[in-house]
UniProtKB/TrEMBL annotation:
InterPro entries: UBQ-conj_enz_E2-bd_prot. One of its GO terms (cellular component) is cytosol. Pfam families: HECT_2. This is Polyadenylation protein. GO terms for biological process: proteasome-mediated ubiquitin-dependent protein catabolic process; protein autoubiquitination; protein monoubiquitination; protein polyubiquitination. It comes from Pichia kluyveri (Yeast). GO terms for molecular function: cyclin binding; ubiquitin conjugating enzyme binding; ubiquitin protein ligase activity.
Length: 336
């Protein structure tokens, strides 16, 4: 039997789709018993109310009302991305901390945690655009004097303290002189590479002289940061700041139209669990139809390709009646 479970926390609803005709259902504290023989392991209460909806394309839905407090704010990006300020400070403060950031390709050690003085969180990925609201005397870009140029340079960049690391949603900003990094010479694109294996690590910020290390080019305690997470994070930030839900994701000729829904949705596909997901509808980009929808430029080709592939992969696993909504394909992306 194939099944799919979708938990909608803001609606206090649990939808369970099963590929059989249902004759009876009983709820236990940690499972659902279907037709007296099929057990689906899930935490529910005997007191929950449920309905059995009519079958569609061979799947029947059990809709259960969950007795929990609904969540009212669903798109907050803070602390949802992997290797955030809270997570890394927890590791940093462990007494037996032997962690490090290593090269994703050859595992060469780049930054030892025991040498880190402080992690500093980025205020926002759109921090520079918000300077007009944060400062009453922002430097005048038309003033070409040397003193103004120095001030403007400072405003245009972020530089960590000595042995400190600034944490962005998808990158780290570091002072090269603090760590003695294994870095190959900077190329004409201002990219930096691992001197041991030539793996791309990040880029040079010419304003501050700092290095911007991309998280998906690093490992921490054998954990990795997926390239597609960059796209998910960008979508959440755009939703937060613009309240827009539909976008054209673009990198050169690669384009896709997406429609974003609530964050924090948990799903299970035949016992494969995906927690804290963003539900996304997607379709091919049609320039003649979609000209009014905002275009979100993705600067990293590999991130957009991996994101699109992950959407298609999850969609292929969904039950037939849930694969599409009108002209859209349905999918989910995990926040990590």
């Amino acid at each position: 039997m194939n099944y799919f479970i979708e938990r909608l926390p803001r609606l206090n609803t649990l939808n369970i789709y099963v590929s059989i005709n249902i004759t009876n259902v009983s709820l236990n504290d940690n499972s659902i018993l279907i037709n007296n023989s099929i057990i689906i392991p899930i935490n529910v209460s005997k007191s929950n109310n449920f309905d059995i909806l009519p079958s569609s394309n061979g799947f029947t839905c059990i809709r259960i009302k969950i007795n929990t407090i609904p969540i009212t704010h669903d798109d907050n990006i803070y602390d949802k991305y992997k290797w955030n300020y809270k997570q890394l400070n927890t590791i940093l403060n462990e007494s037996t901390n032997n962690s490090s950031f290593n090269c994703i390709s050859c595992n060469s050690k780049l930054i030892n945690f025991n040498k880190i003085k402080k992690f500093l969180p980025m205020p926002s990925e759109l921090w520079y655009e918000m300077l007009d609201y944060w400062h009453c005397h922002k430097p005048n870009e038309e003033d070409k004097s040397s003193n103004n140029s120095k001030i403007l340079k400072k405003f245009n960049s972020l530089k960590p303290i000595t042995n400190g690391i600034i944490i962005g949603t998808y990158y780290f900003i570091i002072n090269p002189s603090d760590w003695g990094l294994i870095i190959k010479g900077i190329d004409e694109n201002k990219d930096i590479h691992c001197s041991n294996c030539d793996q791309l690590l990040g880029s040079l910020d010419e304003n501050s002289g700092s290095y911007k290390l991309l998280k998906w080019n690093l490992k921490c305690n054998d954990e990795i940061f997926t390239k597609s997470s960059f796209v998910t994070i960008r979508l959440l930030e755009e939703i937060n700041y613009s309240a827009v839900r539909q976008f054209i994701l673009s990198y050169n000729d690669i384009k896709i139209k997406v429609w974003c829904f609530g964050v924090g949705i948990d799903i299970s596909i035949n016992n494969r669990n995906y927690n804290d997901c963003l539900k996304i509808l997607f379709m091919e980009y049609n320039e003649t139809v979609d000209s009014s929808i905002p275009i979100l430029e993705i600067p990293y080709e590999e991130s957009l390709i991996e994101f699109i592939n992950s959407l298609k992969e999850i969609n292929s696993q969904l039950p037939l009646p849930l694969k599409n909504f009108k002209n859209w394909y349905v999918s989910y992306v995990k926040l990590e």
